[in-house]
Amino acid sequence: MIINSFQITEDLQLQPLDSEEAVKATGSSGARTWIDLQDFEPDELEDWLDRLECKRLSKQLCLEARDRSGFYPLKNEILVVIPFLSAHTGDKHEVDYLALLCREHLLVTAHRTSIMTPQRRAEIQDSHEWLAERSISALVSALMNDLSLESVDSTTELKKTILALEERMDRDANDVQAEEILDVRSKLLAVASVVSDQLPPVQSLSTTDKGFFKLTDSRDFMNCALANLHAAERTLEWLDRRIGDLRSGFQMNAQDKTNRRLNLLTILTAIFTPITLLAGIWGMNFETMPELSFPFAYPAALVLMVIIGTGMYQFFRRNGWFD
């Protein structure tokens, strides 16, 4: 398990803390502490919740509802579970869940994969530039805004990929493979599921009236997160329709190629049918077949077959069957 602990100082800096110091700080009413738990086993998470003196219901929700999106307002705590797109692995979007247990003086976050990207670590060092006030609600609002921006970035990447596929389809439909369309659609579904599951908890947080979770100067961050998610949701709906158009275009192109092949087989069958008929007639074993006794019957038969085949080919060509 990886533990990162921070304390919000009076000058709005996120100061790193030792995990033991962080636990002690939670007992101080003047402290504002953030404890981040990553890659834990269930018993390790339960042990930490016990150390932080979590109530039975909040501990049960943390352990049982950690892998599904939700908003759980308790008496003196708020538990929020929100999905996010973890680090990409092999060009695939993996979905993880971030659980946030909010008290007046404490924020506990729990997740499997890392949220501490290099960019986010750099932002933590400059927290005084984006932290609106010295409160847990301000920290949570900033986190919600940051996660919504990640969803917007993923949506923008998908938009570029889909538009590039459309451009390739317009230039040469045979250049686009079915696997590419299916792959980008699976990515879109992953991002869309995250965005749709992020919206309800963020909306609930923005309207909560809990006395220990007041959004004053930090309300703009929460409103910005909502605006980002709504914009991403609308864009994803539009991109889903574009993927549908791509699939229709691909299927039409595949059907056209099949029709061309069937057309070629039809032409070849029509050309060789009279030749096959002649070969069948002359291959019959009757005693009286006068043409077989002619001196030049064999070369004459070959010439006749070539003339028939060439004539049929020219007929189909002039009538546009090879276009």
What does this entry look like structurally?
The chain is α+β, with helices and mostly antiparallel strands. It folds into two domains: 2-252, CorA soluble domain-like (Beta Polymerase, domain 2, 2-Layer Sandwich), CATH 3.30.460.20; 254-318, Up-down Bundle (Methane Monooxygenase Hydroxylase, Chain G, domain 1). The chain is 58% helix and 13% strand. The chain is built from eight helices and seven strands, in the order E-E-H-E-H-H-E-E-E-E-H-H-H-H-H. It has helices at 19-25, 42-51, 56-64, 118-125, 136-171, 178-207, 219-282, 297-318; strands at residues 2-8, 14-17, 33-38, 70-73, 78-85, 95-102, 106-111. A seven-stranded mixed β-sheet has the order 2-1-3-7-6-5-4, with helices on both faces. The longest helix has 64 residues, at 219-282. It is rod-shaped. The mean pLDDT is 86.
Going across the major beta sheet, what is the strand order?
2-1-3-7-6-5-4
Low-confidence stretches: none
Number of domains: 2
Number of helices: 8
Query: Can you tell me the CATH architecture of the largest domain?
Result: 2-Layer Sandwich
CATH class of the largest domain: Alpha Beta
Roughly how many Å apart are the termini? Answer: 67 Å
Q: What is the CATH superfamily of the largest domain?
A: CorA soluble domain-like
Q: Portion of residues in helices?
A: 55-70%
The overall pLDDT, averaged over residues, is 86
Which structural category fits the helices and strands? alpha+beta
Proportion of residues in extended strands: 5-15%
Q: Characterize the main sheet.
A: 7 strands, mixed
Question: What Rg, in angstroms, do the CA atoms define?
Answer: 35 Å
In the CATH hierarchy, the third-tier topology of the largest domain is known as Beta Polymerase, domain 2
Shape: rod-shaped
Order of helices and strands: EEHEHHEEEEHHHHH
Number of DSSP strands?
7
GO molecular function, one term: magnesium ion transmembrane transporter activity
Protein name: Magnesium transport protein CorA
Family: Belongs to the CorA metal ion transporter (MIT) (TC 1.A.35) family.
Keywords: Cell membrane, Ion transport, Magnesium, Membrane, Transmembrane, Transmembrane helix, Transport
